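Schema walk-through. Below, the input block comes first and the output block second. Nothing else is stored per chain. Lengths vary across the set, and this one has 481 residues.
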Amino acid sequence: MTAQPTSAEAAARPSSTVQRGNETASASRQRPARAFNVDELRKAVGAGLIDTVLLAVPDLQGRLKGKRYGARHFLDRVLDGGAEMCAYILATDADMTPSDGFVLTSWATGYEDMTVVPDASTLRMLPWMPRTALVLGNAVDLDEDPIEVAPRQVLRHQLTRLAAHGLHAQAALETEFVLYRGSHTSASRVGHEGLVPVTEENLDYALDHTPEADRFFRRLQGSLAKAGMPVEAVKTEGAPGQVEVTFPYGPALTACDNHLVFKHAVRTLAGRSGMTATFMASPQTGLVSGLHLHISLTRSGNPMLNHPDGRLSEIGEQAVAGLLAALPGLAPLYAPNTNSYKRYVPSSFAPTYMTWGWDNRTCAVRIAGHGQGLHLEVRVPGADANPYLALAAAIAAITHGIERQLKPPAPCTSNAYEATDAPRLPLTLDQARSAFRHSPVAREAFGKTVVDHYAHLAQLELDHHRGTVTDAEQARWFTRA
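--- output ---
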């Protein structure tokens, strides 16, 4: 269905309103708005306002994994030294199936532990969970070195590479999901087609929502604001039950951290309202949901993508050229599942060819905003993407364009679905995995360890689906074969 975004209004504001900062390896120390610091946590625990702390690490699929701790135990024993968790959190498929083939850990090595060190800058209360706080952690090995394949570290590495050119990335993530009535558990017993969307018609940009939808939106907005994550906008989309949420600009790592917390809130609040939310890239035939990456580049706090005469700057052109050249070879990082590739269909507002254009939503890279608010909107990732990996792929591609001083082709000024002379996005995960494994850009930007790790993850996904008979196959062939 349509993936029509808002214009990410925050991106078009003057640069004085854009959050500044050195988004390099030190980015984890930057504090999100209204962070709940350690002193406040101690006071809240002492007053009995918080009794549980969740220590979480983002897994390969972009989900929060970790442990619940008694708040006092967390303060006394975990806050400073971290906690051990099985390293397979960062070496497993969506089903958490222990599998050989990962170098990080496997049956061959006995599934050893890693240490998750709390990143105090990410500490926040979770208003949708009573008396509970959440803190994200950094995964380190026995030598206290960052685990290279951990999603937060993958993004940090790309931000550090970009910073070597004096450039820093700001990001705003714009995502879509579909909201259904009923629980996933009940529906899965009879087939997911039994789920009914909370809205049953095209309500794109509508403001006359049902009381049911309005209550959910209010709970979501209020909860996120109390967690230090005020939304920029919430809107219903063109598909039944489809919702889009946008957030203000901020440091790239923080934007991804917030995205995982946002998804946790959506799922939790939906479940408590008797609903189910899905972030699948294509949950139904003809319906697609995206994760659009709005990216700006700054140097010493100054915007670097716009030219005074309204054109793209030289750095802006190099960034666009890098995205067009490199992203097709990095697809497993932003389109990680077999379902991801069912989103890339014509007239869906998801791209099919690697093109760019000015305010053109049929392109893979859309130039949006004006003046100092000019920015790149990368429309390639689906809603199922791990935000750290998707943004890392985009930053790696931008860095590639800057280092090679690439020049983009002419912008697309018409329907990009007809731009058959442009490079095409991969059609399948199998095709994407092969391109990723052999991509010189991937090897140079991410290194062999990361490439092999995520290529193996893609292979596990392929192996799972290769032997699975689907409902669609049965419907087509049950009485015809």
